[in-house]
Amino acid sequence: MAIASRADQIRLTELDSGLRVLTERMPDVRSVTMDFTYGSAFAVDSPDAYETLILDALLGDASLFTRADEVEEAWGIVTPIIDAWADSPPPDFPNYEAGSWGPEPADLLLARDGRRWRRI
């Protein structure tokens, strides 16, 4: 297996809205701006995530799905935490009404340093 020399290596760096291809140790090579959009390259829009997922399910490809034993293991980890929360008294948390500017303790927190929230 041949190993590429430094002159053959290409480094992609994201700049502005496209990619600029930079080569190393090749003084006669100039930078090239590359713009890639799926639709223009393939003349169709890229499929939505659910389209891909449903197609994989129809084809029997389960690689994007969580296995049942993984789901059971996750619930085995999370269930004791949920149960502990349910058995504990509610924390003294400064809740506030929807549509308001937030709880008064948030204002007091900033007021300690002579600051205030900026209303937008």
Kindly describe this structure.
By secondary structure, the protein is of the alpha+beta class. Among the domains are: 9-43, no CATH class; 47-89, no CATH class. Helix content is 37%, strand content 12%. It has 4 helices and 3 strands. It has a 3-stranded antiparallel beta sheet, with no helix packed on it. The termini are far apart. Residues 4-8 and 16-20 have low confidence and may be disordered.
Cα-to-Cα separation, first versus last residue: 61 Å
- Strand proportion, as a percent range, falls in 5-15%
* Average predicted confidence as pLDDT: 78
Number of strands: 3
The number of helical elements comes to 4
What is the element string, with H for helices and E for strands? EEEHHHH
Q: Are there runs of 5+ residues with pLDDT below 50, and where?
A: 4-8, 16-20
Structural class: alpha+beta
Helix content: 25-40%
The oligomeric state of the chains shown is: single chain
The largest sheet, given as strand count, sense and whether it forms a barrel, is: 3 strands, antiparallel
The order of strands across the largest sheet is: 1-2-3
Shape: flat
> Which radius of gyration do the C-alpha atoms yield?
27 Å
Describe, in short, the structure shown.
With 120 residues, the protein is α+β, with helices and mostly antiparallel strands. Helix content is 37%, strand content 12%. The chain has four helices and three strands; from the N terminus they run βββαααα.
